[in-house]
Amino acid sequence: MPNLPLSAFPPNFVWGAATASYQIEGAATEDGRGESVWDRFCATPGKVRNGDDGTVACDFYHRYPNDIALMRELGIDAFRFSVAWPRVVPGGRGPVNDRGLDFYDRLVDDLLAAGIAPYVTLFHWDTPQPIEDAGGWPARATVDAFVEYVEAVAGRLGDRVGHWITHNEPWVVSWVGHAFGHHAPGRTSDADALATAHHLLLSHGRAVQIVRELSPGSEVGITLNLDFVYAAGDEDGDEAAATWVDGFHNRWFLDPIFKGAYPQDMVEEWREILPEIADGDLEQIAQPIDFLGVNNYTSPLVAADTDGSRSRIVRRADVDRTDMGWEVVPEGLRDLLLRLARDYAPKAIYVTENGAAYPDVRGHDGSVGDPERQAYLEGYIGAAAEAVASGVPLRGYFAWSLLDNFEWAWGYWKRFGLVYVDYATLERVPKGSFYRYRDLIAAQRAQGTDDVYAVA
Ligand code: IFM
């Protein structure tokens, strides 16, 4: 494996692939599943490219045995998936739908039988529509509703699931869904975004306690989308702009979880629109967690804005871009992991998502070559290895994603999978990156090294 310092990874390093319920499952009306905000958003004209929706998606709901066979071929240790709240509690609150839980029960059993550890995300954006109708995440009562749902899931799967992730990317749910209006439920209010963020965090803290009770011996954490923010220049203005972006994206979530307080500079910014923060909330949010999940794809370069905004993103001239337009900056992952270890000292970190979209097509022989994605993965895994070599407690890496899937407002246009999905037939075709990742995992295992800190 040329130029990849795989010997940095400890022998028990966890290699995985990640997915999310709405993006892959389909079976949107089967076995008692209720409506989610994403079903409603997709049905609203103009919200999702091409009018795409998750009605069928990758049909993982029916095809998961075949997909587990693919996971075995890939050689991963762990599979990250999310549970759909509207399958488990179709009304958002109230009766639990056993048929919904049965699906995850079977999935967990089949994964374990295949020697693959389930890493279960409790919320990856598919809020039940009745919850949204009752006020949604900006309403404090949604915290209680979420806790009831978590009790149902952890009560059923807690004896077999060893790793739980409470929320995926609360920044995206808060800001992209409630302030920018680009994701479900499509709201456009900064105050709603901040209330959502607070209630997601509060529900995280409460969910941690439920999981500890109902799934003893398991580990529980949260996944944040985090970027290392680079200042474009040395001037004060650029540094201040980078500090603002860091506060907005990163510290607003990291500080309450690890330090039990919102960052003071941002509190000053948002003083007028903060939600009620009740006595005891921050203690709940700051429950000790077993690991921090990190989703990282790119790292912005930020400068002062001359037009009155707080910051502007500077386009780098000398880097590759993915099909999302995201800059490929592997060293950003290394710098981020080092910073997290230094400033927040999590017990353990997993990269719970990292990957790239490219406009993949099948060749004449039916295969899908994706050299850019292979280079992307090698660059980022190499950067993760450097962080491990410097002492960061990184325990695992999950590629996003196992399969091409429903990429939210972009519909099926953007392909992130290690496996190509032909949406006309639902045929799966492993891409070049699938085989590259498989070989990389095998090579790291073959080293079986004690030489944890040797970097090639
Ligand atoms: O597809 C998403 C995923 O649901 C959350 N993290 C980023 C991915 C790529 O945009």
How would you sum up this structure, described in words?
The chain has 456 residues and is an alpha/beta fold. The protein has a single domain (4-455), classed as Glycosidases (TIM Barrel, Alpha-Beta Barrel), CATH 3.20.20.80. 41% of the residues lie in helices and 14% in strands. It has 15 helices and 13 strands. The chain has an eight-stranded parallel beta barrel, surrounded by five helices. The protein has a three-stranded mixed sheet with strand order 6-8-9, covered by helices on one side. A two-stranded antiparallel sheet has the order 12-13. Helix 7 runs parallel beside helix 9, helix 8 runs antiparallel to helix 9 (190-214) and helix 14 (371-389) packs parallel to helix 15 (432-447). It starts with 13 loop residues before the first strand and ends in a 9-residue tail after the last helix. Residues 450-456 have low confidence and may be disordered. The site of 5-hydroxymethyl-3,4-dihydroxypiperidine has 8 residues, from loops.
Write the layout of secondary structure elements.
Elements: E1 14-18, H1 21-24, H2 37-42, H3 60-74, E2 78-82, H4 85-88, H5 98-113, E3 117-123, H6 129-133, H7 141-157, E4 163-168, H8 170-178, H9 190-214, E5 219-225, E6 230-231, H10 236-259, H11 264-270, H12 281-285, E7 291-295, E8 301-303, E9 312-313, H13 330-344, E10 349-353, H14 371-389, E11 394-400, E12 419-422, E13 427-430, H15 432-447
